[in-house]
Each structure stands twice: as structure tokens, then as C-alpha cells.
Write the C-alpha cells for this entry.
Amino acid sequence: MFLPLIGGGWVGVSCSDFLEVDVKGKATIPSFLSDPQGLNAGLVGTYNKMYAYVDNEFTKYGDVAGNMVSLPSASTSGDMVAQYNFTSDESQVTGAVGYIWRKIYVAQANANNIIEYGPDVADAYPAQRDYCNRIVGQALLIRAMCHFDQCRAYAQPYNYSADASHLGVPVLLRTPGANDTPSRSSVREVYAAVLGDLDRAATLLTDAIAADCHYGSLQAVRCMQARVSLYMEDWAKALEYARQAIGSQQLAQGNDYLAMFDDLTRQGEAIFRLSGDKMNGYLKTFYENSCVPADTLLSLFDADDLRLRLLRDANGQKRCRKYSATNVAGSEAKRDDPFLFRLSEEYLTAAEAACQLGQYADARQYIRAIIARAVGAAKADAVMSATTDAQLLQLIRRERVKELCFEGHNFFDLTRWKQDIVREQGTTSVARVMTYPNDRFVLPIPQDELFANTSMQPNPTVNSGTTGSGNAEEE
């Protein structure tokens, strides 16, 4: 089976890539998705396609382009070195530039098919309407995340322009045909489409608390709504959705917190994470061997911070252990189940949004919970007492960096905060300092896409033959 690329080219996708089922003979997408069983098989395949981009280049990019990790081999060669050095090239079709674009598009195309055919299946099988609706709701959540993630990688953040009118990515609510040549929508239009999908998903999913974190739930939808609102600086909505996502749940504590990363059979505070069962995991090897905590990150922690146990090995050497689970379900030695949402992020979002709204007491309550879990109640109280309201936002941002490091957030947080990228003094990157705003804070549109689609606009500076705003780039 083949799926059209946005610009009319073609990418080969096997039946197992699309639906993860064994199909004998030829069949069309409508026949695959003609009953509830086929619809569910399509959802499994869609999750697998989402895993392909989350568990590889996209998550890595959110870390290596930031300022809290180090690639010791970057002076010679290695995975994600171009992104670490801000030298991404449009011709890198078999690296991060091409793979992030293409893999997100394939996941999105799979979700589009479920969203298109799901209502017909529900009408044809009224006794299983709720079941079909839950599948469509999950596909809507996935499509929203695909648009959002692609926009984060290939477009400047929402607040880059006053009205978010700068170039985003194509909004594809149906998979385009071979002769279609869609152009890039504005970032404002992309975010509107994302929120529209999430609003619709919220009407189809009813589980306010995720029963199984490997499937999208209403709780996951609320998390995504909170994240999008945070990027939009819609503080009231971000706080509202984060509170809905939190509900009455409490943060995982002590060993239960560490066990989330070491034991993949435990849900812990996970709200939505992708299953690596029978998949090739790539984050484990990268973070264990190639990408280590930078001094800029380690310097933020107190010596007794619980989270340091995830950043050093048994010998005290710098190493990320968030993907080093020792108890995995199944036989995949390299399995990892990357987090999409966990409760800690919602506490941090609620804290940041409440602080921006001037609701300092609420902001303090949320951020104190994060700090107390890490260093104990007494020290958390001392930190809060020593922090003025004017200093609170800086504290919240620092805790967000510490809590979510190596989970693909750092670079995107820095750009939405409009901060410079400043690496550790001994970094092997050729770009120790990158000033905001900067044309290089986005990936180039892949060359193959530009060749195939004459309506596709390139990104300034990072695509050859284009000129930018003359930002300072490196030091």
C-alpha cells in the first residue's frame, strides 16, 4: 500500500505499517476500516506510526537543540549532531529533517483515515457505537498531536509574532491525493485545528482518569489542551485544563516515582505513554550511550534531589536512566515506553499558568508539591519562603527543566519563553550560544517536499536560497 506525500510524491507503507494486521490479497482502505475490528486494527497501526516519530528523532530533537544535554561525540560524528550544532540541512532526508516530517505525516494520514471512516462504521454497527466513538476520539487526539508536533519542529513558536500569523505547517484534515499541493497554514490556523480536534475528541472519550495509559483518554485530551493553551499563553485555559487533568490525583512519591521509569508494568502517574511492545526502541540506546546530562542541568539540583537518581549511573557517572527500565513486559531488551503526558507536567503547567495570572498562592501550591517530592517537605517550605512572588516564575521554569529533562521539552520551552540557548562551557557543539529570535530555531522543510510540492514554502535561512532576519546565530 502506498500513501501520498503532501507534495504528490509517494512513500511506501506496507499493510502492517498501516493497520498492523495480516492481510491476504489486495484490499482498499475502506474495506480495511469497514467494521469495528478493522477500525481497532487501524488504531493500533496508527499508534505504531506515532511511536515511530516520538521514540526517535522528534523527542531527541527537543533535547539536543536545548541547553541541558551533551553529545560527547558531537565533535566527530553521531546521531542528531546536526541538530545539536544547529546545522540541519534540507537534504537530510534520511535524518531528523526528513524523518520527523515524513513520520509525523504517516501517523497523521493513518489517523485521518480512521476519522473519515469511523462514523460510517458506527452507523453500520449501532450496538458498538460507543466502541467506535472511542477509537475515533483517540485518532482525533493523535491527529492533534501530529499537527502540533510538526508545527513545533518546522515553525517558530506561537508567540513569535503578535497574532501568530507566521508560517506553520499544512493543516490536513483529510489525507491529500497525489495531485494535491497544499501550502503551509499560519501557526494560528494550525493551533485552531488542533484545538478543534481536541474539542471533538473530548465529546467522544469519557474516561476522565486514564484506565490504561497506553491509550488516549479524556484525561490525555485535557493534558493536550493544557499544553496547547500554555504555548498560546492563554493562561486561564491552560490552568483550567491542567486542573481538569489533575482532578484529585496526587503525584507519585519516592520509589513509586522512580519505578515509573524502571518498571514498564507500572502505570504510576503516567497519563499517556506509548507502548514499545514488539517495537524497535531507539531512545534507550541514545540516552544511555550518546546523550548525557550537561553540567548546566546537573548544577540546578540539590545533592539530595530524588531526580538525580535518574541522571547518574551506579558509579556516579552522568547518564540518563529514564529509558533504562529493568522490568519490561515481553522480551524486547531495548524496549522503552516514552511518556506523552504524566501528572508532573500538569502540576507544572498549572503552576506556570497560575503565576502568569497573578494567582500566586495557587502557583505556590502546585510547585511546592513538585519540590517536596524531590527534596522533602522541610526543604520545599524553605525554598518557598525564600522565593518572592516576583521570583516565582523563574523557580517554576527551573523546576520544569529539572522534572521534564530528557523527555523532549527543553528546546521548545526555551523558544516559547523567548530565551537564548546557552550551552555548558565545555560543550562539543559549535553553537554554544544561540540568541532568540533565530531562524535556526526551526528545521528546514525537507528538500524532497519542496521538489514535489511547488506550493510548499521554505523556511528562511535554513533552506538554501532563502534569506532571513539576520539574527545572531552562534558564539
